[in-house]
């Protein structure tokens, strides 16, 4: 697997692939790769002839007092995992390459969808995500880009701006990859201590029960309050939200008989865990 660090190098490789008539897939990541990321790569290989993975810890999506400085950076190990999974190219730029010496002044913002749930508790987060993913899509111009449903709101934000901006890339969402006990795989799971790791699957179990209860007539507000208390009782220190939203449009309230999505975010030790189920 080839590793490049500049946009020009990546574009030159992609141009050669295009000249050979090959279909290209893109898997954007922030590194610290786990089986969820590698599933994205393997899925991309099923649809595309060549797969680019990116590793870039994006400063613009971290807020004040968040974990940008301590976010795990394991490029050597990540590159080996990508190579073993069949990736063809790793794009690993630095901040200056991605944003220029002045840091860049343009941002992409998705009003409404980007302001609720994660956007409410992490102001500016989705502006950072939307901006960097827009840049990656335009830098590589793949046929497909692959994202995990674990970050379900993020996936919806990306789909929306890609459609609004007429970016000619098909955005594919891939089902959340879980540990045997149900915990959604995440790079931030590495922050969990042994005792916390035993508590963490409560998040998945709780929102799964919320979904089941809502579908048989439970009230959304009451279920959200019940779920938050369940998590606190289990040992979570703080619950940002547990909400039931319309599955096709997260800005709408859930409607019985239509697709739903239960989304949650809660703190456990040093980790802020997010998850969702339909």
From TrEMBL:
Localization: Cytoplasm
Record keywords, A-Z: ATP-binding, Cytoplasm, Ligase, Nucleotide-binding, Pantothenate biosynthesis
Recorded superkingdom: Bacteria
Active site per database record: 37
Residues annotated for (R)-pantoate binding in this entry: 61, 154
Listed NCBIfam families: cyt_tran_rel, panC
Similarity remark: Belongs to the pantothenate synthetase family.
Subunit structure: Homodimer.
Function of the molecule: Catalyzes the condensation of pantoate with beta-alanine in an ATP-dependent reaction via a pantoyl-adenylate intermediate.
Official protein name in the record: Pantothenate synthetase
Highest classification ranks of the organism: Bacteria, Pseudomonadati, Pseudomonadota, Alphaproteobacteria, Rhodospirillales
